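Morning, I've got a small favour to ask if you have a moment. Here's the protein in full, and shout if anything looks odd to you:
***
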Amino acid sequence: MASSVSYLFVTLILTIISLLACTSNAQLSPTFYATSCPNFQRIARDEMIKAVNRQPRNAASILRLFFHDCFVNGCDGSVLLDDTATFTGEKNAGPNRNSARGFEVIDAIKTRLEAACNATVSCADILAVAARDGVALLGGPTWTVPLGRRDATTASQSAANSQIPGPSSSLATLISMFSAKGLTAQDMTVLSGGHAIGFARCTAFRNRIYNDTNIDPAFATTRRTTCPATGGDANLAPLDQTPNRFDNSYYQNLVNRRGLLHSDQELFNGGSQDATVRGYSTNPASFARDFAAAMVKMGNISPLTGTNGEIRRNCRVVN
């Protein structure tokens, strides 16, 4: 009898531990705001339509913000926080300084949501939904976004500097850094396909076009015309030849040694991801499906839920 009771007790404890471990993701739900703010996604999409019509690049900028948010202590809206005299955010970390953009789009969505249902929708959820809508508006896939994230009251510039993969990363580094966030090598390769849209600054690809050898010579020559060996750091080049359309051209470029960033071409350079890249280069439907699934998976990285964090009234500052 005693052993039976002991067994039941141990089983109960293990069950509780398991439930606690799953709580954060279990609390995310696509219908989280169905009653409290039923027009949330309509409002967000409306503002994203305006932003993308104004400048298609905004879709890529919001997608990048979401990636940089999730990779630093989870998808908690910390990337949106401004620096103040007493607070150091992530906007001036190396991966974000002079390149992170689109904050005013999130502000516009938040302003309308505060008018419609104040203190209800988190900035973290706004960013997750806006990233999805931007991709879809440029012809990419759509997906159902689990909701219920809350906003961080802290940020980490040091984590942003150390945990976001850079444009000079090797394949091994990319795989390792994504693995640290619970993402597989295939997740990494398909999420890199976010570079199907948008632009990069000369400083991010200068070393590749002047020093890498696994690059199409004609492509390198073309890119050098707007990215000199010195100066012109902020000059832009498209990440693929269709920067305003979400398609699989990115992977076709990699197969042809025309990846803009060193880290892009690492995905197709005689390594473990070559077959995946080649597959996506010929099968856009497979890329779209896998990208959508990987975005949901990335969006589930360490969310704040329940009573953790807060619902910011202004995405740029803690309450």
Notes: The chain has a mean pLDDT of 93. The chain is about 50% helix and 0% strand. Residues 186 and 230 are 36 Å apart (CA to CA).
